[in-house]
Design goal:
Two copies of one chain form a homodimer. Chain A is α+β, with helices and mostly antiparallel strands. The first copy, chain A, contains eleven helices and 16 strands. In chain A, strand 5, helix 2 and strand 6 form a beta-alpha-beta unit.
Amino acid sequence: MSVTAAAGFRAGGVACGIKPDGALDLALVTTEGRAPAAAAGVFTTNRATAAPVLVSRVHLSSTGGRAVAVVLNSGNANAASGAQGRADAARTCALVAAELGCRPEEVLVCSTGLIGIPLPMGPVASGVPTLTRSLRADGGPTAAEAIRTTDTVRKEVVVDTDAGFVVGGMAKGSAMLAPDMATMLAVLTTDAEATPQQLDDALRAAMPGSFHALSVDGCTSTNDTVLLLASGASGRSAPGPLAEAVAEACASLARQMAGDAEGATKVVEVRVEGAASDEDAARAARAVAESVLCKCSWYGCDPYWGRVVSELGSSGAAFDPDAVAVAYGPVTVCRHGVACPHDAGALATVMAAPHLSVNADLGLGAGSALVLTNDLTHAYVDENMGTS
Amino acid sequence: MSVTAAAGFRAGGVACGIKPDGALDLALVTTEGRAPAAAAGVFTTNRATAAPVLVSRVHLSSTGGRAVAVVLNSGNANAASGAQGRADAARTCALVAAELGCRPEEVLVCSTGLIGIPLPMGPVASGVPTLTRSLRADGGPTAAEAIRTTDTVRKEVVVDTDAGFVVGGMAKGSAMLAPDMATMLAVLTTDAEATPQQLDDALRAAMPGSFHALSVDGCTSTNDTVLLLASGASGRSAPGPLAEAVAEACASLARQMAGDAEGATKVVEVRVEGAASDEDAARAARAVAESVLCKCSWYGCDPYWGRVVSELGSSGAAFDPDAVAVAYGPVTVCRHGVACPHDAGALATVMAAPHLSVNADLGLGAGSALVLTNDLTHAYVDENMGTS
């Protein structure tokens, strides 16, 4: 039930006509009875910030972290759309607020899709009344469907805690995924009782192990947004378990994104250990994860570790060429900086699996990091050769 | 005549058996009569530094910038090869020195090819005597042929100056090309009279406008080396014109590399102007040039400028979303941060040409930068799926 798994939330989705093929393209998540929920958000660090991100930030700030609804559209990012785009994002919130009977500031807005094309407000305006009528207690999957772009599957999660509350969520994202920020759209809901600050703390703590550890193509989108709303309907308050459940939910959504990355044939976990610091480990892991040479070789199931060592050495992390070790899964192929004997059959099996673990030990210290990524394939090139 | 165009140099190449297909794989450039030439070098910044780079650096330093010969092999990078690799690189120099009758320190060494595989010294040792016998005054093209790996054509240049001397050169490089260092192998020769310091100054001044402005895949190789040797055979000394000729030669070789990048169908010049500083402009231009999303869209002749704006915004450069303009060639498609009317027919012609110019104006200041790159194609994926 994804975003409606937690008590106190309703969701829905409609096809309002933004996508030319008539697919679902407008989604809404609201609280039951329009009661303001505690809310927190994490947004893109891209300075080409999309209009809906700017508007949602202002709304969250002006309400002190309260929201009644989140409206999301796919098919158009409302980015690089100037003053008109900002007015369109604000008007979308106002249209939803008028239908729901709340203040526009209590509505948050997210968009995803093509950049640089004005948001078609006719379809949005005519779609909002139908959208509010589509709200259901089991509407989570419909909303998750309506935010897909090139995603081939819905991304949904439910974490049921021993503390008596639930965290549910939905997300979209299959390209333009990079660390350092939220990297996609995700809406999480919980029926725990929590203050906006507790939600914000839980969300920020969840990022390093989930969305910030995900790099599909190193591209940071203009629209990335993660929102977390708490209805309090369970009557339970437990900040620690809440943070744990939010982290688990975010990690699950991030893994789902890695598994559905554009054109990818495999999920690749790049793990760096033995770095001089965690920062160095992250820098080194990201360099390997974003290397087009490494990504092509993973696609070809090629165990050529020389490229991995070359990326580690040029990542900027402290590096000793005589100390590095590289393993694919459990098979070590490079030790003390040079090739080492290994079982070629076992290695071939590891390289061909749909989940590949690339492990590098820099042999210098205790720093470690993990980055989730994918291979680079003919299909990725196909998907990104054109916009249609 | 490339590396033998300047008076006072000889070159040659042989197939010694490093490459399994029997292609030329060992090259030698020497001075005429074994007279030590003034010499300077620029080397990779990759901390996984290959053995020949380590050895050449020590040799250049111990002779105070004098060299009699440069020996180069393709088919094996002698990188990630540990202490044995360093001994092999030193022994290669010693073998050449014994044949030529000079000191091992007067021989510089370069390798290019696969990483992590011991250099086969049997073929090298048996090939060196044949190699020295292959030296000719018109041997430049043979040497340039012998340093090719995935290059589809030889890279050669001759700059004939009004000052009465010549700068010639050869290079290899078609992947693992990124700025911040030399990014490939290149050997330049001149018959100008020059001190090692003058050569070093000329070489370093030439980098920003040539090899440092080239980014094919953002990967910095372990072996990158640019060497410049001066025989003085012309009897002319003119540091200013020499620096200009070296810059022109390096720029030509860099353009040749961009034109022969693995799998590329077009050369793309990314030019950023109006940045707050030159550093910001370089950061922004490199972000666009290395974006796999942008590179795929250029392959597809897709004028979707939203990705360009998104990369500029996440590059770290100062950025105002309402000030940016983007043009493909002369056709402006985005002004003041939003789409603007343009001639679709003219745009289609620009996008389909084999040479694409992507121009962004950040509208903030006087900083500018240029990065040479390519599109990302099915053929690049093919070439890098495997090592054979």
